[in-house]
Write a structure and sequence with these properties.
Helix content is 29%, strand content 21%. The two termini are 24 Å apart. 52% of the residues are buried. Helix 13 runs antiparallel to helix 14. It has a nine-stranded antiparallel β-sheet with strand order 6-7-8-9-17-13-12-11-15. A six-stranded antiparallel β-sheet has the order 1-2-3-10-16-14, with helices on one face. It is α+β, with helices and mostly antiparallel strands and 910 residues long.
């Protein structure tokens, strides 16, 4: 049944039909542009070193912009963000700081404390919090201590430095409320949490992305001081794409202007052509009055507020970015601009705040937009949840909405260089991404983490869409379609993996995500988007063919694939040539392909309900799956399957050049992934599709050796039910015996990526005098294999846990309540698979909820997050979690796939 429409739902519909562009402005500003591949023009591809954090304040970016708590338009022509200075820092705080990929002892890592608190899908209301120390920010200390530490020690974080001691910090809240599509109200509130008075300079800043310095488009936008109103200063903006805008600032701050241009003198010793990007730093911290343009115009501006806050004092700044001339007439009695009335809502009579109204009218818009947000999420978050669980869902959704980013990357231009710049080194033409010259990205994309991973990743994005679909199915569908566009997908059918190497291979989960989003939208809206499903299916046929042709070396339905997103889970780097020679037959690569077949089969059967033409291709995927299942379990390549009967587990098989074959007996997620490939063919569906039924039966009758892979033990009133699974009933029991063993995979907080068995029994391989080892590591890994932050040797990862839960639910759908397993293993307590799935869901959810002592496992041993009233309700959604205690590890804002917790709470409760 379709839900009751809220006002935000109506905005979403207006955006979908392009009646009003509610999504034109949003939190699309990256949190890190420096150190990205796009800004790297080095010969050796050392992106971190070519454009370090120290250059970011002084060097104009080519492909994007970054900032703190910022917004921009969907093409990132106009940017707004917050800069700060506490009177002690050596540099202006304009962007988030962190260690680059070679500085930390566990890879790149942001060293700041910031939190996404709220956002509607149209960004009609947004709120975030940045915590700013009052003491000098310990940049040098963070770098030096992390560099000193080895991989056997934890990362050294900002909280470890004592920067927040005695609560000597500012809470800086940044809020946005849209009075209309092009009328954005901004409220910045700073609170002194410390015991004494402290100085804070706030510089809400506005600038234009530099599109004019590269010799391709000389048009230059401008910002200039404009006539003000009593108590308000104003700047007029003009951009060739958007025309005129105005930034209005209450409180008569100082307006300062410069250009978004590189400081060549500072970085390279060359003369500067104009005022420079780092002028506000020079003006405020170094006292250089000549650094800014006293003609009060430029392509970058800031409103400087000098504040002295007593202990506990709060100060609020009010600004407005609008397309309405402040000196024009405004009817203060008219309904709120953009006001819309939903069924069951009385029409509102609040007035639009006029240009000089930063009082009641301004606050009324914020109050209304906050109310809109509450009503919208009340319609999405189950009412029966505790307030704590609702808080987790809200902040999860907020993080996902704030993690949208404008992403711009034209590979051909990047390779060739710009007319106004020096020619790129010749090594680039044979280096990173050189064979992706068709790729042209200029879109809003859901990012894994806008600081640590400010670039899309194919399989991350697929998981993002599951939770996003609960609140904005249109954006979820658009994201899935985007990666299949011809300017993203390679002409050979491969999907781009991620910025550092588009040609790497991520697990093929796109079809799974598309069908899940299709079904979620159908449940939410009461109508299915068949057009979306068809569009995705046709493009995925190309991608499936790429997999079959490129990753099945010997044409035997056993697949490789490389690292497949699991980084260091194996004893070797699976993306590189093996030190032993030969090749790996991958249990996970083959299983992902089995899952892919079944996903495509399910979509084809759904489409065939209305178009019989899809019955033929459904037959194709049915037959292909059965061949994969047979190869994986029965003969493999050269006579060895990937199933080890002795251990009751799936392993990779190493094929040596001399013809020898060996199981790599590592009990890891690689051996659990075969569970993902499962689907039931219901008789009522098969009977409606006579062409598919006839071909399926012919295939079964004429391939006696594969019948064992199609289970038909269950019947319904309508006939025979068929289970398609890589794992037989007997194998399922044996795999689950290990997976549900708390001394192996099962943790109190989910399923580990590696069995705890390997803590006492590491797996070792000696090659060329070197011993490679895999041992259980529940937190950060001590290996540098596949980068400095590869951590699949014990932690808990949400995406694969989510797929395990779904697989258990599918097995239960077929086997029913009669199929029971010990849960946990050796406990003497038996559960059906639906109960097991629910309990694993709740163990994952438990990571974020307060326990009986009021502590959230995700926060680990950080006491501030457990007891301090200004921290205890702030939740971070980490990349992965400690295998034994549930503490968050890795990227601290990877709400993308960890945002799946919202879906788990919705479907499994607490």
């Amino acid at each position: 049944m379709a839900r009751i429409q809220t006002i935000e739902d109506i905005r979403l519909e207006e955006a979908r039909t392009r009646k009003k562009h509610w999504k034109r402005w949003g939190p699309y500003l990256s949190e890190r542009q420096w150190g990205t591949v796009r800004e790297d023009y080095s010969a050796d591809g050392t992106a971190w070193e070519y454009f370090p954090h120290d250059h970011a304040r002084s060097r104009a970016y080519r492909w994007g912009e970054d900032g703190i708590g910022g917004i921009c338009d969907r093409h990132q022509m106009i940017c707004f963000g917050l800069a700060m200075w506490n009177g002690r820092d050596p540099i202006l705080k304009e962007r988030l700081f962190g260690l680059n990929g070679h500085e930390g002892n566990h890879g790149e890592d942001v060293k700041e404390q910031y939190f996404y608190l709220d956002s509607t899908p149209t960004h009609s209301y947004m709120r975030m919090l940045y915590k700013y120390p009052q003491a000098e920010f310990p940049y040098k200390q963070l770098v030096e201590e992390n560099r000193r530490r080895g991989k056997d020690q934890p990362e050294y974080e900002l909280l470890d430095t004592g920067a927040f001691g005695e609560n000597r910090y500012f809470d800086v809240f940044v809020e946005y409320a849209k009075a209309d599509v092009e009328d954005i109200l901004i409220r910045i509130t700073a609170v002194n949490r410390g015991p004494q008075a402290a100085t804070l300079h706030l510089l809400p800043s506005l600038w234009f992305r530099n599109t004019w310095s590269w010799g391709r488009d000389a048009r230059r936008p401008s910002a200039r001081i404009a006539p003000g109103l009593p108590g308000i200063v104003s700047a007029e903006l003009e951009h060739w794409q958007y025309g005129k805008r105005w930034l209005l600032c209450a409180g008569n701050p100082e307006l300062i202007f410069t250009e978004n241009e590189t400081n060549n003198r500072r970085l390279f010793g060359w003369p500067n052509r104009s005022y420079t990007k780092d002028a506000f730093h020079e003006y405020l911290i170094r006292g250089d009055k000549a650094a800014v343009n006293h003609q009060q115009s430029g392509t970058k501006m800031a409103t400087l507020y000098r504040l002295e806050l007593t202990a506990g004092q709060s100060v609020t700044l009010k600004l407005r970015l609008t397309d309405t001339d402040p000196l024009g007439s405004m009817d203060l009695s008219s309904p709120i601009v953009g006001a819309i009335t939903a069924p069951g809502h009385a029409e509102r009579a609040e007035g639009v705040p006029g240009s000089n109204d930063f009082g009641e009218g301004f606050e009324a818009v914020f109050a209304q937009r906050q109310k809109d947000a509450e009503e919208f999420y009340a319609s999405r978050v189950p009412k029966e949840l505790s307030e704590d669980a609702k808080l987790v869902m809200r902040q999860s959704f907020a993080g996902m909405m704030w993690s949208k980013q404008f992403y711009h990357y034209d590979v051909r231009t990047w390779l060739d260089g710009d007319p106004a710049g020096p020619p790129p080194p010749k090594e680039r033409l044979d280096g990173r991404n050189h064979d992706w010259t068709h790729l042209y990205n200029d879109d809003i994309i859901s990012m894994p983490d806008k600081w640590e991973y400010p670039w899309y990743a194919a399989w991350d994005l697929a998981f993002h869409t599951i939770s996003i679909a609960l609140i904005d199915p249109d954006f979820a569908k658009d994201q899935l379609i985007l990666l299949l566009r011809e300017w993203y997908m390679h002409p050979n059918g491969q999907l781009p993996a991620y910025e550092w190497a588009f040609g790497d291979v991520n697990p093929p989960v796109h079809a799974w995500a598309a069908f899940r989003v299709y079904k979620i939208e159908r449940r939410l809206r009461g109508a299915a988007d068949r057009g979306f499903l068809e569009k995705v299916f046709h493009k995925l046929l190309l991608n499936f063919t790429w997999w079959v042709n490129r990753k099945d070396i010997e044409g035997m339905n056993i697949f490789q694939g490389g690292f497949l997103g699991l980084d260091n889970i194996g004893v070797f780097d699976r993306s590189a040539p093996l030190p032993t020679g030969g090749h790996l037959e991958q249990s996970d690569g083959t299983s992902w392909m089995g899952m892919y077949c079944l996903n495509m089969l399910a979509i084809a059967l759904e489409l065939a309900k209305e178009d019989p033409a899809y019955e033929d291709v459904a037959s194709k995927f049915f037959e292909h799956f059965v061949h994969i299942a047979h190869a994986m379990n029965d003969v493999g390549v050269g006579g060895r399957s990937l199933w080890d009967e002795e251990d009751g587990f799936y392993y990779d098989v190493l094929h040596l050049p001399n013809g020898e074959e060996h199981f790599l007996k590592i009990r890891s997620m690689v051996g659990l992934i075969p569970l993902f490939a499962v689907e039931t063919l219901e008789p009522e569906i098969v009977e409606r599709l006579p062409g598919f039924k006839r071909r399926m039966q012919w295939f079964i009758d004429n391939h006696a050796d594969i019948r064992e892979h199609i289970e038909t033990t269950q019947r319904s009133a309508r006939g025979v039910r068929r289970l398609l699974s890589l794992v037989s009933r007997r194998q399922l029991k044996r795999v689950l015996e290990r997976m549900l063993d708390e001394s192996e995979f099962l943790s109190s907080y989910g399923v580990r990526a590696l069995s705890r068995f390997h803590a006492d029994f590491p797996y070792e391989v000696a090659v060329n005098g070197h011993v490679s080892r895999v041992s259980y590591e529940p937190a950060e890994s001590t290996t540098g294999l596949f980068g400095g932050n590869s951590n699949w040797r014990g932690p808990i990862w949400f995406p694969v846990n989510y797929l395990l839960i779904e697989a258990l639910q599918k097995f239960h759908h077929y086997y029913g309540e009669d199929f029971k397993v010990e849960f946990p293993t050796r406990s003497g307590s038996e559960c059906d698979l639906w109960q097991v799935a629910g309990e694993i869901s709740r163990r994952l959810i438990r990571i974020f909820l307060r326990d009986k002592d009021g502590r959230r496992p995700v926060a680990g041993g950080i006491e501030l997050f457990h007891g301090d009233p200004h921290w205890r309700d702030l939740i971070l959604f980490y990349e992965y979690f400690h295998g034994d205690n549930g503490a968050g590890i890795g990227a601290s804002h990877q709400t993308g796939w960890t945002g799946l917790v919202a879906k788990l709470i919705e479907q499994s409760g607490e």
